[in-house]
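User: Design a sequence. Structure:
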């Protein structure tokens, strides 16, 4: 679809304004984000996304609006998997709760830049080389299967992260935190703090997740504006979602199973599209929402006893 440059400018002004409010209000002082505050900001970001979806509907029609909504649901649901990793990272570094908001804020700013590069490159490749959808689709199916059958007792080794290795070897790193600062001056020399190392790990983990999520959204639409805006809206809501649900993630142990099926489904959709077998966007949206709903219901209905077996409530 044809999108005026003013729509691109307007979208980024909207995002910039809300981020400025977020940083000025929520991030003004370091504090532990309470559940109520996290839920409010989660609703704000979801509300902004849905309002923008309505705008897309009236400006470009129902088909593009449905593509945006489906892409947003896919990206937002896959972002839940990021939360599991964020919990591991913050736990491994023993990051105080009051500093986590700042790390996630700047981590997501960096993620926006990386996602933009991935999206425009991905759309350009698909539009130029249609056969590449086979690679993207196959990769998503394999990723979904791997997620469905994870290796036992996976442990995140923070010390093996290449960025952490590089930083500890070539940068001056303080031995302790200095409030919520990333950099400090000591003896007229600039040091990075452990909080900065956490930011690097967050950025590198999002880069890995982008490899899955960008092709997944491209299974819905090849329009740069739709793919970009739906992806960015979902990523911006991830931070508040983390604080809203990080404490209750254990109750949704089947959610990862649902995400595995979502990845497999969208990968299959891309493979079928290569052979000109199209799954309607509305049916795709209903399927994805249904899979996620079933995984959540299963987590609630089926509880795990102390012996590790499961039983129905």
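Assistant: Done.
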């Amino acid at each position: 679809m044809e999108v005026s440059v003013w729509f691109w400018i307007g979208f980024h002004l909207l995002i910039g304004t809300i981020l400025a409010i977020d940083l000025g209000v929520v991030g003004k002082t370091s504090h532990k984000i309470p559940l109520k505050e996290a839920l409010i900001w989660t609703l704000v970001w979801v509300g902004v996304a849905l309002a923008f979806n309505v705008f897309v509907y009236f400006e470009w029609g129902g088909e593009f609006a449905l593509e945006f909504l489906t892409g947003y649901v896919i990206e937002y649901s896959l972002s839940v998997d990021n939360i599991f990793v964020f919990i591991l990272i913050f736990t491994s570094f023993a990051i105080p709760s009051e500093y986590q908001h700042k790390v996630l804020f700047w981590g997501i700013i960096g993620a926006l830049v990386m996602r933009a590069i991935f999206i425009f490159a991905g759309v350009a490749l698909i539009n130029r080389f249609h056969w590449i959808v086979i690679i993207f689709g196959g990769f998503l199916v394999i990723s979904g299967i791997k997620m469905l059958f994870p290796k036992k007792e996976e442990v995140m080794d923070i010390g093996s992260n290449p960025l952490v290795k590089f930083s500890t070897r070539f940068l001056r790193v303080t031995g302790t935190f200095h409030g919520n600062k990333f950099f400090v001056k000591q003896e007229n020399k600039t040091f990075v703090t452990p909080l900065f190392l956490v930011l690097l790990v967050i950025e590198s983990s999002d880069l890995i997740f982008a490899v899955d999520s960008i092709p997944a959204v491209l299974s819905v639409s090849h329009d740069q504006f739709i793919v970009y805006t739906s992806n960015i809206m979902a990523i911006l809501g991830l931070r508040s979602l983390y604080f809203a649900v990080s404490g209750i993630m254990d109750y949704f142990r089947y959610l990862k199973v649902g995400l595995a099926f979502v990845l497999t489904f969208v990968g299959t959709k891309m493979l079928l599209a290569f052979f000109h077998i199209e799954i309607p966007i509305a049916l795709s949206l209903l399927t994805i929402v249904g899979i996620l709903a079933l995984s959540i219901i299963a987590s609630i209905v089926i509880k795990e006893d102390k012996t590790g077996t499961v039983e129905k409530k």
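The chain has one domain: 13-154+202-312. The longest helix spans residues 62-93.
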